[in-house]
From TrEMBL:
Biological process annotations from GO: proteolysis
Domain named Peptidase S9A N-terminal: residues: 7-424
UniProt keyword list: Hydrolase, Protease, Serine protease
Pfam hit, one: Peptidase_S9_N
Name of the protein in question: S9 family peptidase
InterPro entries in the cross-refs: AB_hydrolase_fold, Pept_S9A_N, Peptidase_S9_cat, Peptidase_S9A, Serine_Peptidase_S9A
Amino acid sequence: MSSNTPPVAKKIPTERIHHGDTVIDEYAWLSNKEDPDTTAYLEAENDFLKQETAHLSELQEQVFQEIKGRTQETDLSVPSRKGSWWYFSRTEEGKQYGVSCRVPANGDAPPEITPDVRLEREQVILDGNELAGDSPFFSIGTSAVTPDGTMVAYSTDYKGDERFTLRFKNLETGEVLSDEIKDIFYGGAWSADGSAFFYTRVDDAWRPYQVYRHTLGTQEDVLVYEEHDERYWVGVGLTRSEKYLVLGAGSKITSEVRILDATNPAGEFQVVRPRKTGVEYGVEHAGDFFYIHHNENAENFELATAPLDAPGDWTPLIAHREDTRLLEVDAFSDHAVVHFRRDGLTGLRVLPYPGGREQWRERIEAAERNAYEIDFPEPLYDVGPAGNPEFTTRRLRLAYTSMVTPPSVYDYQLDTHELILLKRRPVLGGYDPADYEQFREWATAEDGTKIPVSLVKRKDTGRPAPTVLYGYGSYETSIDPSFSVPRLSLLDRGFVFAVAHVRGGGEMGRRWYEDGKLTRKRNTFTDFVAVAGHLKATGWSERIIARGGSAGGLLMGAAANLAPGEFAGVVAEVPFVDALNTILDPSLPLTVIEWDEWGDPLHNPDVYAYMKSYTPYENVDGGPYPPILAITSLNDTRVLYHEPAKWIARLRASASGGPFLLKTEMGAGHGGRSGRYDAWREEAFALSWIIEKGTS
């Protein structure tokens, strides 16, 4: 190991007073991105990290080659039918980014395509490699083709700050139009005739709050909606039927939806039902009626229907169930598919409409009576609808994976109930799923709650084994059982990989989320610690490396404060570790929106005291900590780089143990580096560090 002295961040005490509490933040100066001292400090930390991890370079290269060697670099997606075209994407060996393509449809069967062969009449829609050029970062924010297939709207980001520039390309001539709109957000939607495109803009707090209409060939765009409540985001989309534009406004706990006839883009959006605090709902057009997916008096949501001329008049169809969380509904011309969650796993429920000429209410009631769920054989898996752009179809495209089964694409034939495997992601190098096994364990939290844990290992790996324990636990986001090529580099070295499905996530339904947010947030952290203890007590694990990112990085910091002795190392990626200071500052990106998730410490002294009791940066003590690797990006607009920078500085100044390392990507955003080879190298770096800490 290197004996070089780590950087020492200067201390400039900054006083903060809230609710009578005076706090000194000696590293607040690091939040000034334009200060040359900040840049110099981050670069010094990067230099120190390189010195401290130089001995891992050979292992890092080996892991990178393993990831690369297991990946079919020249590959393509399964084509999806939309109108008179089949759409798909290609990746090519040696190129960082994908290429989106299409070919004319000839019959109902998808074209037979091979990864390295161009089809006759194949058309490139967008080539990410050409668009990226020599830029060290590149990302596409939206790519939307007009309903008639003649034009694509696409937006690009070359910095990682998620501020995109919107352009339009004529797919018949290849011409990029002179229309150019800067500083827009993700997403957008075309009108039915392709004459107008709707997009969103963000405010200074990075909140999408305005929806504009751009008419091709014009200079002045029209503001069609502005959301003044700082807790709400807005977005806009086009229904699968292409009959309605849908403008949604939503906070963390409340929704309001507006709809507009897509053939009348200059018209006025109409409210489906006015917002009511705590009520979330979504609207799906099903031909001659609407589906409404909502949680009014239904914690786990229910499915209702509404007539076209009175979309706010909801009639229950699938009633609320305590054991089943309804996630979404996809409507088609003659069936609907409900995506749900039960017992920590996802599932699909099909509602087939009868073939007669019944009135729509009779038809959907018959559909619910004849509904059925699709069965899957593995004990752990994740399934969901995927790539179903056509409104009229007798097949359901779905995506399936497990911890041992690579991502797979199926067509489910509604007439025969047959699952047809279209593609399973190739894993090169002799991967055999039979060499691995997955398990579900249940740990007991400190309040007696049973916490599900998903695990995977090689069959020949003995117990106990070094373990990577992953966690997230916020925003009702579920970390479902899934496959990972890079993870094989751990499993083949005798590691166990485990996911702690802690409260604050959505794995066990809406109550699971509610019990891990606001003034019950501490459950997220104690659940994770309980899972680590369970894995050791039951003989699964010896040395545990904890890993999490973003809000999962907050979990990493809090768990390290609560039980540093449980972990042999901690990897915190873009970690939300200075949560209290961030949530106190309404001028920062996303803060006001986040008050529904964490509470409002600015105006509520009880919330302030509660957050202060768990925020990692506020609770670093002088005791021994495990080695910690924090990874961040300078241009991150979601979790600002200074949070992990301050955290590492305080750990190094106040705590013992470690070492404490900070890696700042100086040209990327929240998702890290953008090119796939660059991303693989970043992952190989993290895995090499994990392997050393897990086996030393």
